[in-house]
Amino acid sequence: xxxxxxxxxxxxxxxxxxxxxxxxxxxxxxxxxxxxxxxxxxxxxxxxxxxxxxxxxxxxxxxxxxxxxxxxxxxxxxxxxxxxxxxxxxxxxxxxxxxxxxxxxxxxxxxxxxxxxxxxxxxxxxxxxxxxxxxxxxxxxxxxxxxxxxxxxxxxxxxxxxxxxxxxxxxxxxxxxxxxxxxxxxxxxxxxxxxxxxxxxxxxxxxxxxxxxxxxxxxxxxxxxxxxxxxxxxxxxxxxxxxxxxxxxxxxxxxxxxxxxxxxxxxxxxxxxxxxxxxxxxxxxxxxxxxxxxxxxxxxxxxxxxxxxxxxxxxxxxxxxxxxxxxxxxxxxxxxxxxxxxxxxxxxxxxxxxxxxxxxxxxxxxxxxxxxxxxxxxxxxxxxxxxxxxxxxxxxxxxxxxxxxxxxxxxxxxxxxxxxxxxxxxxxxxxxxxxxxxxxxxxxxxxxxxxxxxxxxxxxxxxxxxxxxxxxxxxxxxxxxxxxxxxxxxxxxxxxxxxxxxxxxxxxxxxxxxxxxxxxxxxxxxxxxxxxxxxxxxxxxxxxxxxxxxxxxxxxxxxxxxxxxxxxxxxxxxxxx
Length: 577
Fold this sequence. Notes:
Elements: H1 2-7, H2 11-41, H3 46-94, H4 105-119, H5 122-146, H6 148-195, H7 197-203, H8 206-258, H9 264-285, H10 287-307, H11 319-324, E1 344-349, E2 357-361, E3 366-371, H12 374-384, E4 393-395, E5 398-399, H13 405-408, E6 412-415, E7 424-425, H14 426-430, H15 446-454, H16 460-463, E8 471-472, H17 481-494, E9 499-503, H18 511-525, E10 531-535, H19 539-544, E11 547-552, E12 555-560, H20 562-565, H21 569-576
Parallel strand pairs: 3-10, 3-11, 6-9, 9-10
Antiparallel strand pairs: 1-2, 1-4, 4-5, 7-8, 11-12
Helix pairs in contact: 2-3, 2-5, 2-9, 3-4, 3-5, 4-6, 4-10, 5-6, 5-9, 6-8, 6-10, 8-9, 15-17
Main location: membrane
InterPro entries: ABC1_TM_dom, ABC1_TM_sf, ABC_transporter-like_ATP-bd, ABC_transporter-like_CS, P-loop_NTPase, Type_1_exporter
Organism: Brachybacterium halotolerans
């Protein structure tokens, strides 16, 4: 929230000044009405009455114009900050230089949307709360000048309201934190259930899944109801205080008027000021609820960014930077194919379960890595992805780490076992990482044909109703597991990355299709300036690879072609499982 305020430090002063002017005019109008009544109506001066009415009209007109300027500026700042926070969180999550986090996708989505929106409300509250408070205090001073007891009644009411706010605010903040956490849990559950809908239907456990979501949703609802009760108590108390204050002021002023100490115009002015005060104080009474919601949401955004190793003021997460930043798509200049990097080299890699792994994946070669333990395979993919410092993984002469991963991702594509497809057509899926020189408007799909062929997915164009224009739902919900896997593989091949790492790319296809994929994939990638690493146990891929490295206990225990390694009992047993 400090960052939000700091971002608008030049505009906030004049916004608050114009807001104070608008609130002061609202408070001044009943005072002027009282003066006009005493000087114009009571004394029978039509000219003063008409001039006074015209003056009030002009003043209200100017006030409305100033309010329009102030409101437009404050809302523009609020919406800008809402957008900035959303972009910063999304950019941090997608940036490969960010630290990996173990948070459900639904929770991250909730923070990037709901919490980012609420945190930016500080730009809605700040321009009004302080000017309104100053005007209320000023009106209290004016009432005290008229009559000390009027001032006492007003200031006592203000003091009691401040005390109520001070007591309730910490409680509301804690409650809002709990509510947002429960809401994020419910969103995470819903996201997981939607993504796993096919699996749930296959297992026939939809009713159990619905029960689980209803339970999480009910917990979130209960937390929201608790918040509503506390908010109601807060609003009720402040309404009671302001109503008592107004009643006391009106009674005192009426007594002074009956006694002849006040004119009828002054009485009307006092009642009008007290009424305006009551409205402003009721608005100010919502500050604890407002503040609890904003501060809680802002803290949740801050904690997520901190977990990612980033801050909201990170220069790489600004709107200006992200709006102009472009991913390198594979060529030095448009139309020029990206050169090789010198291959992939792992030197003494000890990440995860690995024990000083050494291996080379030179240009022009397709190397298969067969791991007896699946944890070793995951550790290799994690290390190659550059998620840790000093991993010992090199792309040519450049070490791949969390700090260099952003710069090297044009030369290195790691396609993990888990397949992620996005909402869009088949052509758009394949074009995600395709070089910019490839025509992706449908005028020439030869590049896509080659990618589908390498992934053994030629038949998809005959199966899918609209070919390349067939729309794929989020995460490929309208495709089978094998179809999703082959489209993801085709997308990876279409990138023409100098170094390509694939983890178990054929686990969802049958043996015949797997053999076809192995032959086409290796043929497509076995070119002089392209290096390919296959992390797999699939016999067809192992058989087509130029060399197989057998990993056991975190170390390479053998290297040869597949047929020679089949003479080893442990290797043969691993492949046949």
